[in-house]
Amino acid sequence: MIEKIKSECMDRLFEAVLSLNNIDECYKFFDDLCTGLELNTMAQRLEVARLLDEHHVYNDIVGNTGASTATISRVNRSMKDGNGGYEMVFQRLKHQNK
User: Fold this and answer.
1) 3-state SS, residue 98
2) Which of 22-36, 43-57, 65-79, 84-98 has the lowest mean pLDDT?
């Protein structure tokens, strides 16, 4: 799956993200890079994944995030059949917050 998005441009994007030092820098960079809708969409998907990881049911997730059931299903599928990215990030965030 990763091969379908892999490119030099994508490498530069990820290197730019990895160069950011704090949340304020993230706000500045992503506000310049993305539209508000794009950012909200990504944030919503991450929140859906977090709630799925915590075993919330679809109806609760719809109510808490406003995401459609199609989006929830897509995120759920990514969590089950994807590359493990959500799980990796959630584990690291849990470790950071301890």
Assistant:
1) coil
2) 84-98
74 C-beta neighbours (distance < 10 Å), count: 14
- Rounded to the nearest integer, the mean pLDDT of the chain is 96
Please state the pTM of the whole predicted model.
0.91
Quick one: pLDDT band at residue 61, thresholds 50, 70, 90?
very high
Q: Which two tokens stand for residue 30?
A: 């992503």
Burial status of residue 75 (CB atoms within 10 A of its CB: 0-12, 13-18, 19 or more): buried
Sign of the dihedral through C-alpha 8, 13, 18, 20:
positive
| 29-64 CB burial, b ≥16 within 10 A, e <16 | eeeeeeeeeeeeeeebbebbbbbbeeebeeeebeee
